[in-house]
């Protein structure tokens, strides 16, 4: 049984990926410092898969702890690195925190992979590296634009660090550029747990429907899009999780053609903010209290993925609909709130 270390494995995307890895026959080890997650997620995972993953509460910024961890776990076959700080606005206010957490952790992990002869590495990148795209849908060959935030910059720099590390060692990597992950596991036992006021659209919608937020602000209806609101590529988190499994299988089977590969992970379909709002209303039968307000600084009008590379090379395709994702997000919100 292949052993995969999942950093940030109690977080939103990490926890769904742990479930898919376990259900695909991998043994999973998790590292998380619980800075943006709860230990209860471990129970949720275990309840779904009936397998308790090995968990270590560890802060990957502490190099000595990372070294000790790898000393104790000498038989890891691959690493999936989710652990990072991810709030764009916070990264503007506190850039050094983001550079420290997102870059030091990556470097320490890559160094240990080298020392321990671990060859297979998957990294959580983001469509944010494309900035405002020149053409849609966005292919992996689109230029990486000047970063719009320190957070975005950490993803660009991370991809470069990984590629440089791969060029001088036996390390092989896949960077997955996620578009907009939404939704929750169908069991409603794991899902997204934003701390404080949600910054992302779907958690804000579900919290508004649950009565925790009074009103959803739709940031702008004067963009150059059919209904004037921004367009994004919303991908069900379970589909996204499954992309990690096939990416790891590709590395483990020596099928990769390049030592540092990059794939878009999206549905290929763009959906506007207002379309998301109306789809949510239709699914839940609830009318959502929303208001059109000013544009949010830094938002780009339209972003959606070209998915041919992931379809053809990884043999992966998003299977779940926007409606599936919204419905699961709503069931998760009700579960969390005891509704
Ligand atoms: P998340 O915050 O839910 O998960 C990250 C996990 O990493 C958390 O459990 C947190 O406690 C842990 N962590 C953070 N710093 C750590 C450290 N120093 N040591 C150990 N654990 C640490 O975020 P997520 O949405 O699951 O995102 C996972 C990855 O995907 C991140 O790298 C993020 O930047 C990237 N990503 C997310 C999105 C998105 O919209 N959610 C989109 C694109 C890329
Ligand atoms: C989606 C749309 C908002 C909230 C972010 C990061 C990106 C990546 C994915 C990590 C936008 C609108 C939102 C609200 C709204 N993360 N909106 N009212 O900005 O596309 O991407 O998450 O890598 O880097 O920037 O996602 O969910 O914040 O917004 O109208 O209360 O919803 O303007 O058009 P975004 P989001």
From TrEMBL:
Keywords (A to Z) from UniProt:
Carbohydrate metabolism, Isomerase, NAD
The superkingdom of the source organism is: Bacteria
Q: In which pathway does it act?
A: Carbohydrate metabolism; galactose metabolism
What does the record give as EC number?
5.1.3.2
Which reaction equation describes what this protein catalyses? UDP-alpha-D-glucose = UDP-alpha-D-galactose
UniProt-listed GO biological process terms: galactose metabolic process
Q: Which GO terms describe its cellular component?
A: cytosol
- Occurrences of domain NAD(P)-binding (ranges): 5-327
Q: Name one GO molecular function term.
A: UDP-glucose 4-epimerase activity
List the InterPro entries hit by this protein, alphabetically: NAD(P)-bd_dom (IPR016040), NAD(P)-bd_dom_sf (IPR036291), UDP_G4E (IPR005886)
Q: Which leading EC class covers this enzyme?
A: isomerase
Xref: Pfam families:
GDP_Man_Dehyd
Which cofactor does the UniProt annotation name? Answer: NAD(+)
Q: Which family does it belong to?
A: Belongs to the NAD(P)-dependent epimerase/dehydratase family.
**Subunit text:** Homodimer.
Protein name, UniProt field: UDP-glucose 4-epimerase
Question: From which source organism is this entry?
Answer: Constantimarinum furrinae
